[in-house]
Amino acid sequence: xxxxxxxxxxxxxxxxxxxxxxxxxxxxxxxxxxxxxxxxxxxxxxxxxxxxxxxxxxxxxxxxxxxxxxxxxxxxxxxxxxxxxxxxxxxxxxxxxxxxxxxxxxxxxxxxxxxxxxxxxxxxxxxxxxxxxxxxxxxxxxxxxxxxxxxxxxxxxxxxxxxxxxxxxxxxxxxxxxxxxxxxxxxxxxxxxxxxxxxxxxxxxxxxxxxxxxxxxxxxxxxxxxxxxxxxxxxxxxxxxxxxxxxxxxxxxxxxxxxxxxxxxxxxxxxxxxxxxxxxxxxxxxxxxxxxxxxxxxxxxxxxxxxxxxxxxxxxxxxxxxxxxxxxxxxxxxxxxxxxxxxxxxxxxxxxxxxxxxxxxxxxxxxxxxxxxxxxxxxxxxxxxxxxxxxxxxxxxxxxxxxxxxxxxxxxxxxxxxxxxxxxxxxxxxxxxxxxxxxxxxxxxxxxxxxxxxxxxxxxxxxxxxxxxxxxxxxxxxxxxxxxxxxxxxxxxxxxxxxxxxxxxxxxxxxxxxxxx
Length: 517
Ligand code: C2O
Ligand code: CU
Ligand code: CU
Description:
Elements: E1 11-12, H1 22-26, E2 97-109, E3 117-122, E4 128-134, E5 138-145, E6 154-156, E7 177-183, E8 190-195, H2 202-207, E9 212-217, E10 228-236, H3 249-254, E11 260-263, E12 266-267, E13 270-273, E14 277-283, E15 290-294, E16 299-304, E17 307-316, E18 319-321, E19 325-331, E20 338-345, E21 361-368, E22 391-400, E23 406-409, E24 421-424, E25 429-435, E26 441-445, E27 451-457, E28 460-463, E29 472-475, E30 479-485, E31 491-497, H4 500-504, E32 508-514
Parallel strand pairs: 2-5, 4-9, 10-14, 13-21, 22-25, 24-32
Antiparallel strand pairs: 1-19, 2-3, 5-7, 6-8, 8-9, 10-11, 11-12, 14-19, 15-18, 15-20, 16-17, 16-19, 20-21, 22-23, 25-30, 26-29, 26-31, 27-28, 27-30, 31-32
The structure holds CU-O-CU linkage and copper (II) ion (2 copies).
One copper (II) ion binds next to strand 6.
């Protein structure tokens, strides 16, 4: 039996944090006045600007790291109480409407001792402000791009019309703004997120810090009595001098991982649990897989990307969140005071770089008081099966390594001028997505939640043990995952690997949805 198989685990994906290289900072001069440094990003920080961002790391050599080396992890403070995610302010004056504003811009923050770091952030904070709305709400977000690059806002997992979904075709140029407007239908309650999606810049904008949480609530939420905690997990690579470096060839191949793995932009925070809590967890890393476990405890999972399961899944030893996946779990205090750690266990996803390692990472300390344990309802909600599939498609993921590293779907790299798949609103389809590559790839389809039907590997087919709404699913090498899906809006969508460096290296396709005939 395959040893790495995991069924319907949930999770997060894209956002590492990162800062600006001198080269990029210099390109920011048109935005001086918005807090971006003009010509010299390091003025006042004692580091000389240089033309080559990779040469810059040699500016200091001391116990904090050799020239050109990564910052040692201990330089980021740890052990503080986990902060809540700040919420985006709703300007609307009537019920049923959410009006907010998001501005993407460079900002200088203090992340490691002795240095400051220029990150790209929404409204100046890491992660971006959390958007919280209810099913049925109309959402209007004014987005302003103060980055030195084109950008967009993509609503990962939400059922929004294609022209409001921040696709690569709907660019917001530097200095411009636009309004995104959509209404969230009944049944859409779940754990989503937003991040930029401009072709060729998605990976960078995410690893420099641009991502935020988005929660849709149901009026009849069966778990509404439980207090909630939000764990938005991202990773960040910092050099010893505080800079966020550009991607290397190894990053393009394996996906970029940072040495700092943070929850709500905090390293190893402390979470105190005094009564049963509901946790929403996002994997907003560009490429890092999070095989989560609470040491010495099992996990009770109640939901995934597109909301609650029908029934709680108990006694899980670990919970794998590939990039972009989310999960909802329930954590309860114990019979006596105790403590555990939330860790990401080493997960082997087939990385190919010579020095690639799969390491165990401690994410948080969890202090459990002796306290009351809530009894969960046996049935959380109904998850109706999508109807019988009216057509079957096959998609093949593949890689070509070497000088021109390419990541492909059906043998082709992404082309914005080409339609790869055509379908029709409401048509139920099976997609058999086969991974012919040597690495795991988290497959994501825009604009809908789908249902995983089965997984096939080594000649063995395993049917999904229960129904769940997903928008991202991990696919192991030599594995075929069958999903069932129906699109709800006419227009152009994309699907891609959510290791953002793979997406950018070509592992993305376009889907044109025709109106119902
Ligand atoms: Cu998280 Cu194409 O998206
Ligand atoms: Cu998406
Ligand atoms: Cu991939």
